[in-house]
Amino acid sequence: MAPTVEIAIPTATLSSTSPPHTVYHITLRLPLRSFTVSKRYSDFSAFHSALVNQTNAQPPVPLPSKSWFSNTNSNPRFREERRIGLEEYLRAINEAPDSRWRNSSAWRAFLNLPTAAAASTSNGTSNTSARLHAAITDPSSTNAPITDPTLWLDYYRDMKAHLHDSRLQLSRRDQETTPQKQHESSAQAKSSLVRAGSMITTLEEGLKHLSGRGAQAGESSASSSLGDGEIRRRKDLLINARKEKDGLEDLLHAMATKTKLDHAVASMQDKDALLRGGNDSSSEGRRTPARSGRVLGKETERTRELGNDGVLQLQRQMMQSQDQNVDELLKIIIRQRELGTAIHEELEVQNELLKLADEDTDRLQSKLDVGKKRIGKIS
To answer: What pLDDT score was predicted for residue 84?
Structure first.
């Protein structure tokens, strides 16, 4: 049986709004992910009513009652007692042997859990927790497209985490000094990139269903519809993610090529040192005369059968190949720079939109204040 979700309310803070209110931060922990949901007491009260209406049964632990003589904003002790009571309330539902409260849509909506994992099957509801855990941690394991917008965003965050891990492994590979450590870092980076590529494909298929094309193709879709603007935003996210994955793959290939070239150059330097001869430090600074012809020493499979002219030609070919790889690396760096510039421009646009939203909020708040004053005068 899959591990259940661990629920806790570690903190309760006051909002920065006027007037302030208490916000309870619910932490949900899974084996592969943790996220936080912030709720007010009024949200808990509405959730409790919806839960009782859907299940026709009271939860194992009653919801902490509302107090008319004390306020959580000005009374830290009462705020802490209510936080503990709300935590016990959620944990009792989560750990109860009876799963009807956890199977309700009110429970999933309150905790922002994906709705796609909670659909009933012909085998009953005994495996709901297992399917819910599987849908959150790895939607592709269900062999079904992602049809839940919230689940799509969770899966996208997982994909970005794999890209981040790959970038860290490439940075670590560049810092390693032994071939074995470099090979291990390269293998881990490649594994993360392969995983990210399959996840991007899954996200693209899920976005087709979310945009309605899956239903037009004759497939049944119970997903929530998204607006055109949100669909375009998610498409842009996938385009940037695929560009980032391609850039990391090119960087991994360039690093592997550079390692081979370094080994080849080191061999050529040894070859050149053998051809020139060396200095005899034990002969009181006198230069040892170079031997005529080739000097036997460290040979490779590529140079063993070559003459002096052949070795020189091989070195020129390697230098030319190295120049080409440097050009490819330069293209990758330019692509990364363009990607960073595009992200920066997108962030500036988002900041402007947030600034406009703040201005609209302030304008609306001022209108509400004026309305309240007029209502007070009328009453």
So the answer is: 93
Look at the chain and report how many structural domains it folds into: 2
CATH number, domain of 254, equals 1.20.58
98 falls in which pLDDT band (50, 70, 90)?
confident
User: At residue 95, what is the residue type?
Assistant: E
Angle between helices 228-276 and 308-378 (to 10 degrees): 150
Q: Is the pLDDT of residue 70 over 80?
A: no
- The answer as to whether 165 is a domain residue is yes
Instruction: Give dist(CA 250, CA 82) in Å, integer.
Output: 54
- Which CATH number goes with the domain that contains 42? 3.30.1520.10
Q: What is the pLDDT of residues 220-255, one digit of tens each?
A: 433 445 788 888 888 899 999 999 989 888 888 888
Mean pLDDT of all residues in 69-82: 83
Say if residue 28 is in the same domain as residue 112. yes
Compute the radius of gyration of the chain from its Cα atoms: 32
CA gap 186, 295 in Å, rounded: 37
What is the C-alpha separation between 102 and 113, in angstroms, rounded? Answer: 11
Alpha helices in the chain (DSSP H): 41-55, 76-95, 105-110, 128-137, 149-175, 179-210, 213-216, 228-276, 308-378
Separation between Cα atoms, residue 350 and residue 6, nearest integer Å? 34
Please check the confidence at residue 305 and state whether its pLDDT lies above 50. Answer: yes
Q: What is the pLDDT of residue 116?
A: 42
Closest-CA residue to 76 (of 12, 26, 24) = 12
Last residue of a domain, one of 91, 115, 137: 137
**Which residue range forms the structural domain that includes residue 41?**
6-137
Residues 176 and 259 in one domain: yes
The residue written with tokens 């917008």 in the block is: 149
* 354 found inside a domain: no
Residue 360 lies in a domain: no
pLDDT at 354: 93
Structural domain includes residue 104? yes
